[in-house]
Write a structure and sequence with these properties.
The strands form 2 sheets. Strands 5, 6, 7, 8 and 9 form a 5-stranded mixed sheet that branches. Helix content is 18%, strand content 38%.
Length: 120
């Protein structure tokens, strides 16, 4: 069986991104290691999730062109409306919840412009 381990998000400031994912979204740091010339290997994930994001230094990986557009990601929340209230109160760029036939969702934008769809 194959599972997804990590999804790379290329970022301009790993510490700023760590604060966003950990302090604002409630993720946990799974790994934080020195990679030498490529910088820092920084994995964050929602508690209990088998899949993590690698907040990869775009400059170290020579991927500056992929900042803010490196992945299409969908997250899940038990209560999209409560999440919206919480994130709005924290000053996070987030869309209003939108109801579709397939579910209710909103979009969160991280500090580098990555747009994360959150489905209820």
């Amino acid at each position: 069986m194959i599972t997804i381990n990590t999804v790379a998000l290329y970022v301009t400031d790993q510490e700023r991104s760590r604060r966003f994912y950990v302090d604002v979204l409630g993720f946990e740091v799974r790994a934080d290691s020195d990679m030498g010339g490529m910088g820092r290997w920084l994995e964050v994930a929602p508690p209990g999730s088998p899949t993590a994001f690698v907040l990869a230094d775009a400059a170290g990986f020579d991927r500056k062109d992929r900042v803010g557009s490196s992945a299409d990601i969908t997250l899940r929340s038990d209560d999209v409306h409560a999440l919206h209230r919480d994130l709005t109160a924290r000053g996070v760029t987030v869309t209003e919840p939108e109801k579709q036939d397939w579910g209710t969702f909103l979009t969160v934008t991280d500090p580098d412009g990555h747009r994360l769809l959150v489905r209820g």
